[in-house]
C-alpha cells in the first residue's frame, strides 16, 4: 500500500478536487464493534432454518448490505425465486433475534480515542450502517454519544439502495452538513462498504478486521488499508495534515 501522502495525492488526482476532510463516516459492525463473528454465526443458524446455506465467508463478504437485501439475494441464488420485502424482513428478524441472544460484542481498541482525535480536530463523527436492528442503533447512542450526534447516524431505514450502492454514504454526507465527497473520510471493513465509499467519491480507508484476504478489500480500491483501528489512530494526524 502506498504511503499516506501518495494516497492523498492519488485521490486528489483521480477526483479532480483537493481532499479537505470535515467528517469521518464509520461503518458499524467490524469497524466500531468486534461483532462480525457473532453476526456470522447468527446468519448461518438463521438461514439454515429456511433451507438456505450461508457460510461464515458469505457473512463477511456481504457485510454492509441491508440485511433483508442479503436474504433476498441468497434465496434467489439458491432457490431461484424472488421473495417479498416482507418475507425477507421476517427471515432477517430470525437472524436478528439469534444475534441479540448472544453476548454483547466489544468495542474495538482505539475507537473512542480516534473519535476524540476526530472531534479535537474539528471534524464530525458519523456512522453509516446497513443495519436495521434498533437495539444496535440504540447502543451507538449509549457508547459514543459524547462524540456522535443522533442525526449523524445513517441506517437501512434512511436509504432505498444499500451498500455497495453509494447512497448510504451520500446520505451520510448530507446528514453531516450537506458535505461534498472530498470532505468525507469513509472507514470500512467490508468489500461492499469500501465499494460504496469509493463510489460516493470519498477518501476511503479499509480496516481488515476479519478473515477475508487483503486482496478482497484492495480489489475495491480503498485509498489506504490497515489491519486495526489502532494503526489508523497512529496515523491520524498524518492523514488530516
Main attributes of the structure:
241 residues, alpha/beta, six-stranded parallel sheet, 6 strands, 48% helix
Could you characterize what this model shows?
It is a single chain. This protein has 241 residues and is an alpha/beta fold. Helix content is 48%, strand content 12%. The chain has eleven helices and six strands. The chain has helices at residues 4-15, 36-48, 56-61, 67-79, 85-100, 111-120, 134-144, 167-175, 191-199, 214-218, 229-240, and strands spanning 23-26, 124-128, 148-154, 184-188, 203-207, 224-226. The chain has a six-stranded parallel beta sheet with strand order 3-2-1-4-5-6, sandwiched between helices. α9 links the parallel β4 and β5 (203-207). α2 packs across α5 (85-100). The longest helix has 16 residues, at 85-100. It is globular, with a radius of gyration of 17 Å. The model has no long low-confidence stretch (mean pLDDT 95).
Q: Strand order of the main beta sheet, please?
A: 3-2-1-4-5-6
Q: What would you call the shape?
A: globular
Unreliable stretches, pLDDT < 50, 5 or more residues?
none
Q: What's the mean pLDDT score?
A: 95
Spatial separation of the terminal alpha carbons? 19 Å
- Number of helical elements: 11
Q: Main sheet, how many strands, which sense, barrel? A: 6 strands, parallel
What's the quaternary structure here? single chain
Counting DSSP E segments of at least 2 residues, the number of strands comes to 6
Rg of Cα set? 17 Å
Output the structural class: alpha/beta
Helix and strand element order: HEHHHHHEHEHEHEHEH
- What is the helical fraction, as a range of percent? 40-55%
| Beta-strand residue fraction | 5-15%
